[in-house]
């Protein structure tokens, strides 16, 4: 597939000298879901704000659907839907009028059937005549999502869309995301719920200190950087790892009744057979053996802390 969003050498330096983006380059393909992960202050929101025209870049270029965000701003922005972190809605407006107005802002013709479908998918249809000020925080978040979808964008930015909202909304949101992907919409997601990124993303990007550390297919990333842990559970707890086993780099579980061994699944030899033999030679009695695959969260934490090489 071709790239619908192309970013080249994008930099943003604020007045005072703080550099929020440092030469970011990235291509995002049409119809993919990219999860953008990074700690607070990494540059995620600045990147999104710059692409959406809220923040002016210091240098570099961005195009959306072939339209430059500076030279051809209106055409580029019409292709973008944005669900921001902050809830900023007109409190005395109704849900229905709010999303109709948003669609009109982009010059789209009236399409009540489309808007009804969006509201139904987000469980807002029955409340369409309610004023925004009457809604809960979770419902207001749903309205933001409906407004972002009202003009049928081809690129949708979700900036922490489910932060602090109920489980039901999160499920509704991911159901809508799955359907949008089927329709060919490109979705860029930032989230602190890393398990969500792991569940729905095609690729994962990691950003920290204004720089992209990597962008890679989720499955490929897990295969290359993911490690497994083997926990040897013992009948009797230990106060410390026996000297004869220290060469394996083992750690004790919290209660002392488990020996935890990390190994690379891609290595020619995992060392598990030798470990189990040495555990028996040390006079330790096994109660059970369990393995655990590194999660995306484990990998992310390792990357931003500099542990992954």
TrEMBL record:
UniProt GO molecular function: ATP binding; ATP hydrolysis activity
Matches recorded under Pfam families: ABC_tran
Domain ABC transporter span(s) in chain numbering: 5-234
Coiled coil: none
SMART domains registered for this protein in UniProt: AAA
InterPro entries per the UniProt record, alphabetical: AAA+_ATPase, ABC_transporter-like_ATP-bd, ABC_transporter-like_CS, ABC_transporter_ATP-binding, P-loop_NTPase
Keywords: ATP-binding, Nucleotide-binding, Transport
UniProt-recorded name of the protein: ABC transporter, ATP-binding protein
The organism of origin for this protein: Phaeobacter porticola
């Amino acid at each position: 597939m071709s790239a619908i969003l192309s970013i080249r050498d994008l930099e943003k330096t604020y007045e005072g000298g703080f550099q929020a983006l440092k030469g970011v380059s990235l291509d995002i393909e049409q119809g993919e879901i990219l999860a953008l992960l990074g700690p607070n202050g990494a540059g995620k929101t600045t990147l999104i704000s710059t692409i959406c025209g809220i923040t002016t870049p210091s240098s570099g270029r961005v195009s959306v659907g072939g339209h430059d965000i500076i030279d051809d701003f209106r055409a580029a922005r019409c292709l973008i839907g944005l669900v921001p972190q902050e809830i900023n809605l007109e409190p005395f407006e109704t849900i229905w009028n709010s999303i109709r107005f948003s669609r009109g802002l982009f010059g789209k013709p009236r399409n009540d059937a489309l808007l009804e479908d969006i509201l139904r998918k987000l469980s807002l249809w029955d409340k369409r005549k309610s004023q925004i000020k009457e809604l809960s925080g979770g419902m207001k978040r749903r309205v933001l999502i409906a407004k972002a979808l009202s003009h049928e964008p081809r690129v949708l930015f979700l900036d922490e869309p489910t932060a602090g909202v109920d489980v039901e909304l999160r499920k509704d949101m991911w159901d809508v995301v799955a359907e949008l992907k089927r329709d060919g919409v490109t979705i860029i997601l930032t989230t602190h719920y890393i398990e969500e990124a792991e569940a729905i993303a095609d690729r994962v990007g990691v950003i920290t200190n204004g720089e992209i550390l990597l962008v890679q297919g989720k499955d490929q990333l897990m295969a290359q950087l993911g490690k497994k842990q083997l926990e040897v559970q013992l009948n009797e707890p230990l106060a410390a790892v026996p000297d004869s086993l220290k060469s394996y780099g083992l750690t004790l579980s919290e209660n002392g009744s488990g020996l935890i061994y990390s190994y690379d699944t891609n290595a020619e030899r995992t060392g598990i057979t030798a470990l189990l033999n040495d555990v028996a030679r040390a006079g330790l009695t096994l109660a059970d053996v369990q393995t655990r695959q590194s999660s995306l969260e484990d990998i992310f934490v390792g990357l931003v802390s500099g542990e992954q090489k």
